[in-house]
Amino acid sequence: VDNAVQNTLRLLETVGRTDIPVFRGCGQSIIAPTMERENYYGCDGFGDLEYETPVDSTGLQEEHAVNAWHKFALKYPKQISLILIGPLTNYAICSTMYSDFNQNLKDIYAMGGNWRGRGNVTKSGEFNF
């Protein structure tokens, strides 16, 4: 989660959108221990690039991502498309804690799985699910 937060802040800084708030989410899975992942994109998830300046963390909010998601869904009903590109822990907790969360979203997209039905044959073979 720390890498994801730092990389998000760095990306927003790079594209000149530090006005977009960043919320830290869950760092642990709900049931199983967090699955060890290989460093596909370096130790930091961004190819271990070296930066001249430290990341600007002024956009990082104190509020937890789960609560922020719910707040935004209520503030902008049927206007938010949730794009889930990592483990689904934040989504699972938000939809469990707030029964009105899903009905206030426009769309939900999740990255994971495969379309041929092969591969990912172990119980934890799919990182996102």
From TrEMBL:
Task: Report the SUPFAM superfamilies cross-referenced here.
Answer: Nucleoside hydrolase
Inosine/uridine-preferring nucleoside hydrolase domain residues are: 1-129
Question: What domain of life is recorded for the organism?
Answer: Eukaryota
Q: Which GO terms describe its molecular function?
A: hydrolase activity, hydrolyzing N-glycosyl compounds
Q: Which InterPro entries match?
A: Inosine/uridine_hydrolase_dom, IUN_hydrolase, Ribo_hydro-like
Q: Which family does it belong to?
A: Belongs to the IUNH family.
Designated name of the protein: Inosine/uridine-preferring nucleoside hydrolase domain-containing protein
